[in-house]
Structures are given as structure tokens and as C-alpha cells.
Amino acid sequence: xxxxxxxxxxxxxxxxxxxxxxxxxxxxxxxxxxxxxxxxxxxxxxxxxxxxxxxxxxxxxxxxxxxxxxxxxxxxxxxxxxxxxxxxxxxxxxxxxxxxxxxxxxxxxxxxxxxxxxxxxxxxxxxxxxxxxxxxxxxxxxxxxxxxxxxxxxxxxxxxxxxxxxxxxxxxxxxxxxxxxxxxxxxxxxxxxxxxxxxxxxxxxxxxxxxxxxxxxxxxxxxxxxxxxxxxxxxxxxxxxxxxxxxxxxxxxxxxxxxxxxxxxxxxxxxxxxxxxxxxxxxxxxxxxxxxxxxxxxxxxxxxxxxxxxxxxxxxxxxxxxxxxxxxxxxxxxxxxxxxxx
Length: 342
Ligand SMILES: [Zn+2]
Ligand SMILES: [Zn+2]
Known about the structure:
Blueprint: E1 2-6, E2 14-17, E3 27-37, H1 39-45, H2 50-53, E4 60-61, E5 66-73, E6 85-88, E7 91-93, H3 99-102, E8 113-114, E9 126-130, E10 135-136, H4 143-146, H5 152-162, E11 170-174, H6 178-189, E12 193-197, H7 201-209, E13 214-216, E14 223-228, H8 233-241, E15 243-251, H9 263-269, E16 272-275, H10 281-292, E17 300-303, H11 308-316, E18 323-327, H12 334-338
Parallel strand pairs: 11-12, 11-14, 12-13, 14-15, 15-16, 17-18
Antiparallel strand pairs: 1-2, 1-4, 3-5, 3-9, 3-18, 5-6, 6-10, 7-8
The protein binds zinc ion (2 copies).
């Protein structure tokens, strides 16, 4: 099979032929239709995050927004069959037994393995996955549309869900990229009044297309919830100032440097700071179901695996509008062919 491999940090990925993986008893091997190119992949390849660098296996096939069809089924697998269309998310496996798993917070599992970080991911024609942690892709979504929901979509979804965003509340989304444009649509679907803040006019235009009630560079009306999706410490400082008293700041985007928080203002305003890390399998099922209704659509453009280093360069320059999705020729499902974004 063809795969893009990270052999060492800060080097281009190399496109190579590898043997197709074989499933362990609790695994499936999936023929990949599509894999989203997430900013985390770039951060991993560039070794930007110390915390994840320590856990990154090398050589590695990146990619954790994977959709495709089950090709081979391990002997102990009961929940999936050959031909099922599924997604493989960031959370590759969790133990199901630790205190976090038992509390329903499997994203915090200490024993977790991560697709495209600790095990090989989806920048390849085939990927191995734990049957227990794959999710079904609803019929209403093409594989290319669904792929970015496996990370960007579920991350935005869980952030707003954990913040307790309710119908009629005001939310401000900071950063209108892959995550941000999805957060706007999810918040609108929940009945919220949505403001979007970005420094680029083209991103503000995208925010309006996604249904934002207000889009600008600064000072929206004070919000019940602010969600920061950009890797910018400045955005966090603006977001804290843009909350109404008692408001919640959802921490999702990850700048390498810390941001400043005034304890005095957090106390005086009874603000809540809320970290949110990708999503559970339940969160995934919910965002996929919401997207299948048509309420949330990830803007994406389809590329080929051979372009992956070019896509990374475009992302480093900030030139990728919304999401790039690598699709595999000859495996394009009809829905995707009909509903490709320009
Ligand atoms: Zn991601
Ligand atoms: Zn666990």
C-alpha cells in the first residue's frame, strides 16, 4: 500500500510502498477513502508540542481524521463487518477500566493510544483500528465530508457541549479556521447567537457564510461562552475580556506559549475556564448525526496523498481555507463526487 511516512521530525514526509497491515483479533483493517489534514499533524511533524513529541512513534504514518470501509476483520470482532463504512478518530483505544473511562471521560484515559501519534494513522491506503473505537459514518455524509468531523468537528462539538451552551445564549468563536467554522455552525444548530472574531477578512466572510450573526476583528457583545480555536495567546486574552460575568471560556486551540489570566478578574466575574480535548465516542456519534441532518458542513477541498508535503507548506503559510482532505483515487464514493467543495 502507498503511505506517507514521517521518518524524523522537521523532515518532509516520504511517500513509500508498505505491506498492508493485518488485524489483531480485536482489530479491523480499513480501506481508506479519505483522511483530513489536521493542524495537529503539522505540529507533530514539526515537533512543536513537547508533551506529544515524547509519545510520538517514529517512523509514523500521520492522520487521525480517517474514513473508509472495513476490509479485513479480526477473529474476535463482533461489532463490525466487512463493507461497513466507519471513521477512525484521534482516540484510537482507551482501557475502559480506569477511573476516567468509568466516569465517561475516556478522553482522559491514562492508557489511551492515539491514531497517527502512538500508532499508525490514515495517510495511507489502509489503516488498522480497534473495532471498539471505530464509529459508523451515516449515509447522508460522504467520506470526505465526514473525515474532518473525526477531529475538528468533534473537538468543536465537545467544547461547546461541555461549556453548556444553550439555545438563546451568546457565544463568540475566536478563529475561523477548520475548527472555528464548524463551531459557528454547531452553535447555530444549538440555537445560540453567534459572533466570530478573526483578523482576516476572508475568514470573516467564511464566518458569515456559516451563519454567524456578527463577524469582526474585535469587541462583540459580551458572551455566555467564548471558544478559542486558534493557537493564539492573544486570542485567549481577548476572549476572557469578551465574556459576560459568569461566562465560560472553552480552551481548545493550543498556542505553544502560555496566556495571562488575572485571578482577580476571574474571581470578580466568576468566570469558568474549561479545557476540552477532542471527544468521546458518544460525542462523535452526536456530531456525525448532526452533520447528517445538513446543519453542519465542513468546507473542504480534496487533494491527493502525493500532495501532502505541499499541503503542509500551504498550512505553514496559513493558505489553506478550512480543511484539506486527502482522498484516494478510485475509492471515491458517489456522494463525495457530487458534493465536493470548489
Ligand atoms: Zn486533529
Ligand atoms: Zn482508561
